[in-house]
Amino acid sequence: MGKLLGYPEKMSSNPGLTKGAYIGQSILLALTRAGAERQGAYEAVQRAAMKTWQGDESLAVNVKAEPEIMALLSPNEIDELCSLDIHFRHIDDTFRALGLE
Length: 101
Prior knowledge:
Strand content: under 5%
Oligomer: single chain
């Protein structure tokens, strides 16, 4: 780990390159936890992801345009799932576990 090089500028820009498509799994899991059948939830998230790849909007915007998703998740829940904060919430614990405080 001591020789690991990090490029903060690149690391900050990389998530935006996918317009949030990497969040799809988190949305899918939230939908199934909220009671959706997995296949239907998968199809709704996939539709939103395809619109994201093909268009200019983010996954968050496209997810909010899917009625099946909005029936189970609020806009605030979607925003939270699409925030990088949720993905980094255990980062300090991870670094401590690796002895990298």
